[in-house]
Amino acid sequence: MSKPQIAVIVGSNRRDSLNRKLARALVKLGADKFDANFVRIDDLPMFNQDLEGDLPAEVVRYKGELARADGVLIVTPEHDRSIPAVLKNAVDWGARPYGRNSWAGKPGFITGTSPGAIGSALAQQHLRSVMTGLGMILLGGEAYITFKPNLVDDQGHIGDESTRIFLRGFLDQFASLVARLSAQPARSAA
């Protein structure tokens, strides 16, 4: 039996993003449970309903990658106590055009990190609200990670053992959710 295919979206377009480092470490940590594909979002044009009639090539590519994924892992920073603009734009394109919502029925896991004490909690809460409204089936629980110098080691692994165990539990639950939902008949997009 093949492993589930997971689309990984990093909610930052910063080259040295802390959340990109965390996402890569999570993919390594979950490699025995799923195969991952990092989905580019920084090249998507700003959402504009006028473009829906003839979708830009970047949007077609993006929506195709989401369609092929069995689940979606979103790793996001917090910008001004909310969802980063680049991520919100990607969410909007994923939900459109009307009738072609890429999120409906798709299992998802949201996490993220920041140097602050609450580790992107507000962005994650806002994003959970948006994604639930779009029909995504989110893994329960909260994974707010404070970024510390040893969070990701030089080899790209989660450096702190207690954090690794904590995140491994979420990844195991996520893989189980994806497997369960992948075994069900396909649902139509909302």
Give your account of this protein's structure.
The protein is of the alpha/beta class and 190 residues long. It has one domain: Flavodoxin domain (Rossmann fold), CATH 3.40.50.360. It contains 5 helices and 6 strands. The chain has helices at residues 18-29, 57-68, 85-95, 121-133, 161-182; strands at 5-10, 35-38, 71-75, 107-114, 137-138, 144-146. Strands 1, 2, 3, 4, 5 and 6 form a 6-stranded parallel beta sheet that branches. β4 (107-114), α4 (121-133) and β5 form a beta-alpha-beta unit. The protein is globular and about 50 Å long. The relative contact order is 0.19.
**Average pLDDT rating:** 94
CATH class: Alpha Beta
User: Please, how many helices?
Assistant: 5
Unreliable sequence segments: none
Quick one: how many beta strands? 6
How would you classify the helix and strand content by structural class? alpha/beta
The total number of structural domains is 1
CATH superfamily: Flavodoxin domain
Query: Fraction of residues in helices?
Result: 25-40%
Termini Cα gap: 29 Å
Q: Sketch the major β-sheet.
A: 6 strands, parallel
Strand content: 5-15%
What is the CATH architecture term?
3-Layer(aba) Sandwich
Rg is 16 Å
Give the arrangement of secondary structure elements.
Blueprint lengths: L4 E6 L7 H12 L5 E4 L18 H12 L2 E5 L9 H11 L11 E8 L6 H13 L3 E2 L5 E3 L14 H22 L8
Parallel strand pairs: 1-2, 1-3, 3-4, 4-5, 4-6
